[in-house]
Backbone:
């Protein structure tokens, strides 16, 4: 397969972790006979410095022409801590998501055996947890009409969803479940909300096209409990924008390290892959940034193009690195001086010389 | 102090746990020289059986004349599992809350030293957790206008809040904080929602009247993480209806047992106190129902009338019972045959003969 990949390393540790993801993707291309063409462009604070805009036109054009976007991280204290700043790095990311029509946010949550002790939850409750959360990203109450009356004493926010908005992400969630443990849990509040009742109706209709996938339902308040009590019960979670925001952030602490968490944002034509973590400017250039979230974003990119064997090879490499504690200092209690680069090299080498 | 208390035992284990709460309140009355007058009335499935209504007029009238309502639990499989049932026990509770104008739901969450092992969270993360969650109960998206278009392809729910709705619960939360660790955390999503921005503005204004209480802010998605990572940081949490539903249910699993969780629902004129747990019909009459949630509801009742020493005496009795494992089988690994009644008797005795 030939893929044009736009690389937007961004700020802080963005470039150094993205370098490792590229390294790993190049090893996959060689090993599996694909052609991945990487073109870099600037975004975030560095783009403001260079062009005045956090998302220069050339960057947006490159992303639109590419098959996928590999994103690093953005944010710089120079803008974040300046209340007079007129443009902010984060605006680049929001505009990019909107311009590319990315309507589904995908967040995998996995409890790695080697890291069970790092979780705030008890080992026995989280062992074997492996969840993929599908959150609707462009609708619902975050984007609905906002009102404030003249006396500023009454405010409102409208939560609205259409059948079409629900259908498109539901298909993605069910297709993903088919490649996993074949179960989708819709998280809603259908006992109270009209939008949730529409979600249930539409999701049930779509589910009829995927007879091999089991569908169940959970109210969001109960889901917030179940995520702590028994996260292993979940395979694919499907939910609307705000519930997804809350539940995916809650779930993000299960694994015990934010340095491992990747995400994808997907639309009909475009897709973007990025770590959950921020630009961590204090760590920039020190070789201590954990590249695994970025490397796992690359695996999600491959999954998106149905290159599941290739994606799994990356995941095996990551697990091997965790097993042998070839990890950056945030996770390492055994070895000193394992740098960002060394972790990337280990996983690259694992792919090039699989055992 | 003289208090008229309406007692609504309800269904299942409701009557037997409520009996223990009354026993304990009577011991408090004797020891502290108060007069508590208890009058019983029926609610729930038993009221449907007797009168056809889950909230008979006589019951509502009694509640309106009383200073407080002590509520047991409602629900019966005979109605719950019958799709043709026209009246349901739960309607009695919803109507009662509405008729009494109960706009604030208060849920304490405490990690008892003796039960740390029962929590799904690691001991060291939850030890000393002691939170009181103030959830707005009659406004927001659960009660806003609901719409579904003619083709049933677009649905919406309106989240609306007024200054007055926010002010009244905010005063309750700050007054509670003054008797505790003097910190209120407002959970909202003010970076996105207009209603959250109104909450922030109004809460800041009210906070100015409570200079001894610290106020901070947390986005709801971050709060869902912090509740797992570091619940000890919270004293009083103040939040709107839906966020409160999600966060309080999430927090309810921290303590490791739902049999200990009490709640209050408070309005301008009336107040109701009840365990979180349901009617647990399978356990009815077996003497295995944990009465502690109901007994702690009685302590909340006393707090509501500023009888804090009395409330603390009950809490000390509960802690002593946990320490000595004078607990029902759900929590007991040491003694057999400690019944609902024996737990009530122990705490009654602790109050009558404090050591
Ligand atoms: Mg979030
Ligand atoms: Mg709830």
Residues:
């Amino acid at each position: 397969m030939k893929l044009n990949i736009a690389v937007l390393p961004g700020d802080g540790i963005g470039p150094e972790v993205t370098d490792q993801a590229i390294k790993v993707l190049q090893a996959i291309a060689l090993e599996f006979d694909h052609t991945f063409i990487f073109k870099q462009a600037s975004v975030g604070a560095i783009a403001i410095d260079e062009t005045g805009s956090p998302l220069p036109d050339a960057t947006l054009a490159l992303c639109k022409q590419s098959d996928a976007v590999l994103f690093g991280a953005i944010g710089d204290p120079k803008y974040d801590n300046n209340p007079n700043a007129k443009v902010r790095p984060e605006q680049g990311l929001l505009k990019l998501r909107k311009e590319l029509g990315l309507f589904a946010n995908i967040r995998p949550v996995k409890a790695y055996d080697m890291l069970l002790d790092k979780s705030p939850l008890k080992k026995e409750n989280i062992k074997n947890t492996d969840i993929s959360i599908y959150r609707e990203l462009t609708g619902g109450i975050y984007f609905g009409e906002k009102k404030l009356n003249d006396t500023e004493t009454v405010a409102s926010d409208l939560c609205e969803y259409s059948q079409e908005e629900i259908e498109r992400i539901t298909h993605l969630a069910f297709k993903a479940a088919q490649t996993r443990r074949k179960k989708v849990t819709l998280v809603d509040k259908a006992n109270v909300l009209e939008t949730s009742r529409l979600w249930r109706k539409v999701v049930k209709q779509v589910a009829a096209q995927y007879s091999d996938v089991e569908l169940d339902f959970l109210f969001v308040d109960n889901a917030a409990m179940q995520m702590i009590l028994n996260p292993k019960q979940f395979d694919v979670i499907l939910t609307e924008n705000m519930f997804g925001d809350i539940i995916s952030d809650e779930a993000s602490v299960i694994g015990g390290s934010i340095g491992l968490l990747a995400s994808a944002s997907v639309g009909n034509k475009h897709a973007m892959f990025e770590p959950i973590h921020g630009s961590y400017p204090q760590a920039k250039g020190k070789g201590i940034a954990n590249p695994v979230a970025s490397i796992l974003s690359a695996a999600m990119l491959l999954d998106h193009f149905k290159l599941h064997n290739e994606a799994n090879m990356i995941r095996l490499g990551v697990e091997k690195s965790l097993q042998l504690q070839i990890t950056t200092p945030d996770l390492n209690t055994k070895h000193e001086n394992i740098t960002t680069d060394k972790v990337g090299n280990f996983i690259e080498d694992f792919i090039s010389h699989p055992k």
